[in-house]
Amino acid sequence: xxxxxxxxxxxxxxxxxxxxxxxxxxxAGIEDDRYFGHRDEPGQNITLxxxxxxxxxxxKYDRPHDLSISKRNLVTRGVRLNSLVGKEFxxxxxxxxxxxxxxxxxxxxxxxxxxxxxxATIVRRFLHRAGLRADVLSDxxxxxxxxxxxxx
Length: 152
What we know:
- By secondary structure, this protein is an alpha+beta fold.
- It has a single domain (2-146), classed as PK beta-barrel domain-like (M1 Pyruvate Kinase, Domain 3, Beta Barrel).
- The chain has 3 helices and 11 strands.
- The chain has helices at 51-60, 106-112, 119-126; strands at residues 2-8, 17-19, 21-25, 29-30, 46-50, 74-77, 88-91, 94-101, 132-136, 140-143, 148-149.
């Protein structure tokens, strides 16, 4: 149960940058990320998704191996994120609270569509599998390889 990849984007719909670590601020999210400091909705601080779900999609539809396709911040390995809705857990020394599932939208569908695969099919494929929205409860650094605690 670890963090496999870390991504941020400086603007909505922008390029995803892979990082080895990020600084997070309680109630604000990941420094330099597009949603840092936004308080439009609960769970906007940070998003997580399971590497296994992305890899299953890529394999099924014969896509290149790219774990950034979901536009989520943290890609986990070995943990079922759906079970963390409403629960506090830690990533390394940083405390988070799972707020709600990060359901897929047609923006994701449009981004991943191809001549063989339409947006609606992609959205249906990721329904209840597209990750978790979480609030950051403590300041700290999240690094690639950090363990998840309190997840089951």
